[in-house]
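Ticket #4471: structure output looks truncated?

Reporter: J.K.
Steps to reproduce: submitted the chain below (168 residues) through the standard prediction queue, then opened the result file.
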Amino acid sequence: MRGSEKMGMTLLKGNERPAEIIGLAYALEEALRQFYTSSAAATDDPDVSALLNQLADIETNHKDRLFNLYRSIEDTPVDKETFEAQSDSHVMEGGFTVDDFNAQNRSGLQTTEEVLSLAMMVEAQAMDLYLRYADRRVDLEAKKILCQIADEEKAHLHSLGSMLEQKI
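Returned output as attached by the reporter:
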């Protein structure tokens, strides 16, 4: 699946507070985590299933970093359960809708290489989305948060590239 230049650009209007931006990023991470988890359960290949579960765990770690970032900037932060309840999304990282992404990609997750290639595509699209949002912002604090999240996606993309080199 390929993302268009405009995909995901309606997720933020441009007037969100940094905490709201982090909440959206958290929801996008959770939707991708759910995709990986459900894909792991749907495959018969134990190696592919283990890789998908590993990718789901990485998304959980990214969510934890986002929650810690939220707590560091919010004057009266809510607890994690409340934060998660407010961060509901049917859209995954990169701006893909969960249903469309499932329909177009679930069958293409048969090998380690396919899984890692797909994961890299999603992370690259997510990084690009956050940078496009940052480019449109004038609020320096929001711009900084968006760039920080994009840097996290870049690091994740680098890690996936290293995994691909090791496994292929």
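Triage note (M.O.): checked the attachment and the full token line is present. The two ends are 22 Å apart (CA to CA).
Status: closed, working as intended.
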